[in-house]
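Quick one: co-fold with zinc ion.
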Amino acid sequence: MSRWLLTALLLLWPALTALAEPTSSRITGLRFGGGQSQTRIVIDSDKPLTFKTFSSQDGGERIVVDLPKVRWSLGGLTAESGRGDGEGLVQAYRYAHNSSTSSRLTFELKAPARLARSFALPPAGDDPHYRIVLDLRPIEPSALSAPVAAKSSPERASPVRAAPPAATPRPAIDPARRPLIVIDPGHGGRDPGAVSSSGLREKDVTLEIARLIKDELMASGRYRVALTRTRDEFIELETRVERARNLGADLFISLHADAGSNSSVRGASVYTLSAEGEKRAEEVRHRNDWILDVETDSSRPREVNDILADLVQRETKNQSSRFAQMLIPALSEAGWPALANTHRKRGFFVLLNPDVPAVLLEMGFMTHPADEAMLVSDARRARLAGGVLAAIDVFFSREAPLLAER
Ligand SMILES: [Zn+2]
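Sure, here it is.
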């Protein structure tokens, strides 16, 4: 080795070792959106971050985010610790290093709130930041297991029973934070949906099976459930979507059993929003002023808000697809026949909620005699409900790191 090269290496050595050491991420921004009914917190960083969230034991007065050791550069100021005012449900926040290897961000809440969702997003568009997004919703005891129609309805929430022995990994769910599943029985009232040759109406089948799925989910003790309709009434599609959104649904499942054009085709299929549908979602969002929380932050340029909204939608779409892909095998396993290519994408209106993962389950064809028999059989319906519960369990176990530490 030449002396020159050796000298060069020695000179470079400190730089090389510095490169080998991982440099910590920098938290560059902390933003709030929304209001008292729902608050979104966005944490910006220059590198992707793993994070853990938990809330104080005393009833959601504090939300804590634990991070690997980071550098705090909030408001253009780099500091070891600091604090600031919150917005919406957040009174104030504090940040500091928690240990030699970890950092902690604490949000003091104005009112008891739960972490409805949390997920990480990569940089997109012009925005170079990685983000952690946290959605807070107020804890309202009255919302637990309340049907959507608050009017007196014959349907009552089933008593919560102890969870059965676990066959699949069960998410550990704090009762106050049980995910809210909104089930949408298709059609109703003056809209019967498909009608079989024997006179069976889709609107009745969807409502009966929706109730059954609700009972199954409630009996697990792991979920809150609401139906978009609890009786034979006509409800606009737009209203169904709105109700799910207003309730703060974590998952939306629309039930249908339509007429098949080909009488030899039978079985269930699951739909998620198609690209066309997404465009429509965008239109609907603007038309109805369905404000994604990120949009309500007027202190940010509109382009940034749009990017955030787009990212939230993309994450929602991914979650919908993941649930669809879990639902199909779960139904098959429950002995419910499914079409070969069962995960399809279409622009169904009821799937248009921009920030609620949503699928449309076509349970079978009213026009196929075998499907019709299956759709009215108590035993088969019970299997279907079991299959839906199994898929939801898998979804919330896997999505747990994304949706929050429930
Ligand atoms: Zn239908």
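If it helps, The CA atoms of residues 1 and 95 lie 51 Å apart.
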